Each structure stands twice: as structure tokens, then as C-alpha cells.
Amino acid sequence: MAATVAMNSMLDEKMTDVFDWSDSQVPVRDAVWNHYMDANGHDTDKTADEVAPYMKMDDAKLKAAVEALLKV
């Protein structure tokens, strides 16, 4: 029997749909990925490791973490 992985659907919502302070149309997942790629010199392996915890967060934790990371 295959294991079911629960993914946070908020990750696929547009930034503007989740955060009233954002004007970005990219999904939350992409915004987080892009932030880490820019911050670490586009090291894909490092970015994958840094983004992994976001994939397992519940909505409340995810929203708070993304806001702390990206809100200017």
C-alpha cells in the first residue's frame, strides 16, 4: 500500500490570494523557492533543503513563516 503524502494546498495558491500585502501572482510555493534561490546563489540542492520544511507545515504555520520570510 502506497503512503499518502498530505500537501499543503496553500502552497499552490497565488500570493495575492493568501496575503493582502502581496501583489505577486505566483504561487506561494514559487515565491518561497525563488527567495531561497536568490539568497543562496541559485544552488538548487541547498534551496531544496531550505524549502522542504515549508512543504510539511499546516496553514497557520506556513502563512506565518512565509510572511516572516517575504513581507517587506
Structure explained in plain terms:
With 72 residues, the protein is mainly α. It is 50% helix and 0% strand. It contains 4 helices and no strands. The protein has helices spanning 15-18, 28-39, 44-51, 59-70. Helix 2 packs across helix 3.
Helix-strand layout with pairing:
Blueprint: H1 15-18, H2 28-39, H3 44-51, H4 59-70
Point out poorly predicted stretches. none
Q: SSE order in H/E notation? A: HHHH
Number of E-state strands: 0
Span of the ends, CA to CA: 45 Å
- Which percent range fits the helix content? 40-55%
Radius of gyration: 13 Å
How many helical stretches?
4
Q: How much strand content do the residues show?
A: under 5%
Shape: globular
Taking the sheet with the most strands, its summary is:
none
- The overall average pLDDT, rounded, is 91
Judged by helices, strands and strand pairing, the structural class is: mainly alpha
What is the structure about, briefly put?
This protein has 72 residues and is mainly alpha-helical. The chain contains four helices and no strands. The longest helix has 12 residues, at 28-39.
Descriptors:
72 residues; 0% strand; 50% helix
